[in-house]
UniProtKB/TrEMBL annotation:
Family: Belongs to the small heat shock protein (HSP20) family.
Pfam families, sorted: HSP20 (PF00011)
Name the UniProt record assigns to this protein: 21.7 kDa class VI heat shock protein
Taxonomic lineage from the root: Eukaryota, Viridiplantae, Streptophyta, Embryophyta, Tracheophyta
PANTHER family, per the entry: 21.7 KDA CLASS VI HEAT SHOCK PROTEIN (PTHR47838:SF1)
Keyword Cell cycle attached: no
Listed InterPro entries: A-crystallin/Hsp20_dom, HSP20-like_chaperone
Record PROSITE patterns: SHSP
């Protein structure tokens, strides 16, 4: 079995200032999720990075969530105990690593943006909108998916790397700033 991987371009300038204009409310999501589309169920199901219920209560995946403020074992414990998690993250002395399964999309549809050095945005599209307007400003969840995660203060956002493995496994590496690395290793930074 061969494994293919591809380094993704991490975009640091956002050309779409008014995206995610339509939020995803809980009732709207329930109606949308009741469809029989298997891709929708894979992408938004419990345990997926893009599930509005990922952290135990409903919230719009396009809203930034401070993932890094929590202990990973506590934050994702209910997902790990149910064996449904398709996302994991951990911290090392050098940085943070986020791994997630991105089902039904392929490497050409995944985008990683860094918004003003504070938020990592992972998004993708699985079907084309009929008109030429930006799919993100309509009912974006009908055409794709998004998850916005606040970065830790010690992140070196200019050196983020993203990789896709076998067209479905995403890995994002967020290094710590050199000063943060020196502090964690007990070096004098003065």
């Amino acid at each position: 079995m061969t494994s293919s991987n591809k380094k993704l371009e991490v975009q640091t300038e956002d050309q779409t200032p008014h995206k995610w204009c339509v939020s995803l409310g809980e009732e709207i999501f329930k109606r949308f999720f009741s469809q029989t589309n298997p891709t929708v169920h894979k992408v938004f199901a419990d345990g997926s990075l893009f599930s509005p219920m990922l952290f135990g209560k409903f919230f719009d995946p396009s809203d930034a969530f401070p993932l890094w403020e929590f202990e990973s074992d506590v934050l994702l414990s209910h997902l790990k105990s149910s064996s449904q998690s398709t996302v994991d993250w951990h911290e090392t002395d050098e940085g943070y690593i986020l791994k997630a399964e991105i089902p039904g999309t392929g490497k050409n549809n995944i985008q990683v943006h860094v918004d003003k050095g504070k938020v990592v945005e992972i998004s993708g599209q699985w079907k084309q909108q009929r008109d030429s307007s930006d799919w993100r400003c309509g009912h974006w969840w009908e055409y794709g998916y998004v998850r916005r995660l606040e970065m830790p203060e010690d992140a070196d956002w200019k050196n983020i790397e993203a990789y896709i493995y076998n067209d479905i496994f995403l890995e994002i590496r967020i290094p710590k700033s050199q000063q943060a690395c020196d502090l964690s290793q007990g070096k004098d930074v003065a």
